[in-house]
């Protein structure tokens, strides 16, 4: 799937709304708050790209209008009344690594394919709207804020996929749990540091994170700092050849077939989704000349692991660490299989 951030709206059309078969008004029943793992503190004033938002009391009806923030909300002990489908058509727009936290909740699933569904959002009677990763513009923020207190992109971030830890901070603060949010961030970094220490061969190796296919003769890859932390935290150095090719912050680098040597590295991780993706990559004449491919140092991930790498949340980080680490060991050793890994 093409996941170019600047074309996120088009991608959402591919994904569809992902709505469940439950009646629309079923999300109005009951409260979204679950048993807390820490005491919430209110009021909280959250700073974001459009100013500040004050959450006066514990939210009971949370609507997530961003693509990935449901993970953070769930891990902090809340269950939203609505989530937003990005891609993958997972139940209630919640991927496997977060299903346990969702439990038996059945949130309404919104779609941003044609912009925010303001009427549906208002009908859900939210008392907090979370859109830290929603591509939100000022006019959207103003309209959403008339419905309920709204959390927008972290200050200094990009419309989509601001640094993951900044997203956790603003969401956790809005939920009255800033300290617990900080703990989630630190736990991810500590867990990765421990695995990095167990695998010293990772340190200093160059790595490229790439999408699954060529689109109009180009493949999209991720420069340092854009959804690459899962490799950096393990000790890898993100391919420095990509940095000069970045055109705008928060965007991937498009690499043409004839310039594919730019993506070569000690290890390449392709976010593949099906076996045919590998076969199609091999049809590109320059693909077979990549040293990482020739040397069995290319990793091809299954659709769930690919989704986890795209989500970049504390819950997905845990899934990546468990499922990707063995594959990275094989790749560094030049023993990576030409098959999907992660299941």
From TrEMBL:
SUPFAM superfamilies, per database record: Helical backbone' metal receptor
Superkingdom per UniProt: Bacteria
Gene Ontology CC terms, in alphabetical order: outer membrane-bounded periplasmic space
Alphabetical UniProt keywords: Signal, Transport
InterPro entries linked: ABC_transptr_periplasmic_BD (IPR002491), Bact_iron-sidero_bind (IPR051313)
Keyword Transport assigned: yes
BP terms from Gene Ontology: iron coordination entity transport
Transmembrane stretches, start-end: none
Residues in Fe/B12 periplasmic-binding domain copies: 61-332
Chief place of localization: other
PROSITE patterns tied to this protein: FE_B12_PBP, PROKAR_LIPOPROTEIN
Cell compartment(s), UniProt: Cell envelope
Signal sequence, renumbered to the chain: 1-20
Family: Belongs to the bacterial solute-binding protein 8 family.
PANTHER family named among the record's database cross-references: FERRIC ENTEROBACTIN-BINDING PERIPLASMIC PROTEIN FEPB, IRON III DICITRATE-BINDING PERIPLASMIC PROTEIN
Protein name: Iron complex transport system substrate-binding protein
């Amino acid at each position: 799937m093409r996941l170019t951030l600047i074309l996120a709206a088009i991608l959402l059309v591919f994904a569809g709304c992902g709505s469940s078969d439950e009646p629309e008004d079923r999300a109005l029943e009951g409260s979204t708050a679950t048993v807390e793992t820490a005491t919430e503190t209110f009021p909280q004033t959250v700073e974001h790209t459009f100013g500040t938002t004050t959450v006066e009391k514990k939210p009971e009806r949370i609507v997530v209008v961003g693509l990935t923030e449901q993970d953070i909300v769930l891990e902090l002990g809340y269950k939203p009344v609505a989530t937003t489908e990005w891609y993958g058509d997972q139940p209630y727009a919640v991927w496997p690594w977060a299903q346990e936290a969702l439990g038996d909740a059945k949130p309404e699933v919104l779609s941003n394919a044609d912009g925010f569904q303001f009427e549906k959002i208002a009908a859900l009677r939210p008392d907090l709207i979370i859109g830290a990763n929603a591509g939100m513009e000022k006019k959207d923020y103003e309209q959403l804020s008339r419905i309920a207190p709204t959390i927008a992109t972290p200050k200094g971030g990009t419309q989509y996929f601001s640094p993951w830890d900044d997203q956790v901070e603003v969401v956790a603060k809005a939920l009255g749990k800033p300290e617990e949010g900080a703990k989630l961030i630190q736990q991810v970094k500590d867990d990765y540091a421990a695995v990095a220490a167990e695998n010293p061969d990772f340190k200093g190796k160059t790595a490229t994170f790439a999408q699954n296919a060529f689109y109009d003769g180009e493949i999209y890859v991720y420069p340092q700092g854009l959804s690459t932390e899962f490799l950096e935290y393990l000790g890898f150095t993100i391919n420095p050849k990509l940095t000069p090719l970045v055109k705008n912050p928060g965007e991937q680098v498009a690499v043409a077939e004839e310039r594919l040597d730019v993506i070569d590295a000690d290890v390449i991780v392709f976010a593949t989704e099906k076996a045919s993706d590998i076969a199609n990559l091999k049809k590109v004449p320059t693909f077979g000349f990549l040293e990482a491919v020739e040397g069995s140092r290319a990793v091809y991930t299954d659709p769930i692991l690919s989704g986890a790498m795209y989500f970049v949340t504390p819950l997905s980080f845990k899934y990546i660490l468990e499922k990707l680490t063995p594959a990275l060991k094989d790749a560094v050793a030049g023993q990576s299989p030409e098959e999907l890994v992660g299941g």
